[in-house]
Protein: Cyclopropane-fatty-acyl-phospholipid synthase family protein
Organism: Kitasatospora arboriphila
Amino acid sequence: MAEVATELVGAVESLLGARIPVRLTAWDGSTAGPPGAPGLVLRNRRALRRLLWHPGELGLARAYVSGDIDTAPDTDLYEVLSAVGRFSDRTDVHRPGLADVLSRPGRRALRTALVTGAVGPQPAPPPEEVPKGHGRAHSRRRDREAISHHYDVGNDFYGLVLGPSMVYSCAYWTPGAKSLEAAQEAKLDLICRKLGLRPGLRLLDVGCGWGSLLLHAARHYGVSAVGVSISAEQVEYARRRVADAGLADRIEVRLQDYREIPDGPFDAISSVGMAEHVGAVQYLGYARGLYGLLTPGGRLLNHQISRRPDRPGEPYVPSPFINRYVFPDGELAPVGSTVSLLEEAGFEVRDVESLREHYALTLREWVANLEAHWQTAAQLVGRGRARVWRLYMAASAVAFEENRIGINQVLAVRTTEAGASGLPATREQWLAEARHSSDRHRSEHPADTDLGDRPSVR
């Protein structure tokens, strides 16, 4: 038989009517594909079986997570993901169907599959693939299961990836932010300023993660705060950080669903990287619930990943890899849909800011952290799960860079009965107003803000 890589590339290109965007190296050592293209290594025949049973994203992801496929030594993962993404968008590539099996290219592909050993039983998915949750999507039980799958994998692992800030959302890369930690602090401060925080106000942080925003708001803006999460490991970690900071009298962290909060009103609400878990069916209820928890004149800062609008005639299909391995039941919506639902719930939307490029930079920093601590990370969560995180973060970075997905901060207000928003006339004014409040609090309570220079509990 001819070299495996040559046979595979020839058969696939004949079937698709286009050159593939990667250079393949097969388990027999043979290499074929466009010179200079990013390289993929097929470790064994099982890699082909995964692709044959699930052509496209899911098959590639399963093969990568299991280690059946890897990048070539001279190729980084970003190059492969970018090349494959651009190729999948091309309109001149033939999408083979059942009828193509009987065509000459189809017969050649089938013969190649037989002689290379690609035909065989479907390989079991890697064990990191999450089983379907119990009950209907976005019920409270199933949401708890989905959140636990992603977030309850060990705080030590997240500490390696996220760094000392322990912030798992898009950083804000201002000109002065020379590190991930500085960019995350700039993001936390931006949120506090948009919300107009000042001493005496009461903040609710929905999906509070490991407590970083709560601590920043209490230390630098003098607020009292409540944070809720349905991740048990996050809540335990956040409570410990609050106690160590001596702020337990001003910050409460609860293991609680956003639908169960009984004790409004709050003067401000932050929801950072949480709304992607709500789901389209529940989103209006989510928005109405937060509206009902705000006092008139109160502000909501909704920080949420968005997707591009559906193409005409092509309904939205969630990423099978993300849904099965990373964020079960997670859903992305176009930013226009989010704004419309917030308005339908009663909010006045005052400001929308895109941070798309900022998230790409943030994700690359997380990937670099993971790669720098690879052996430790693999020991903590297993090699397969570490590969899941590396693939999803790198793929997400490319998706943000190439405008396949976005990230937006939406500032909305529950106006008073008279229609007043309470915001100054310009963005510059309301950002500066909150900055002055923070500066006053820092000067009056230096003991609080000194804590901000201490490393997070690891």
Notes: The two ends are 55 Å apart (CA to CA). Residues 248 and 258 are 21 Å apart (CA to CA). Residues 451-458 have pLDDT under 50 and may be disordered.
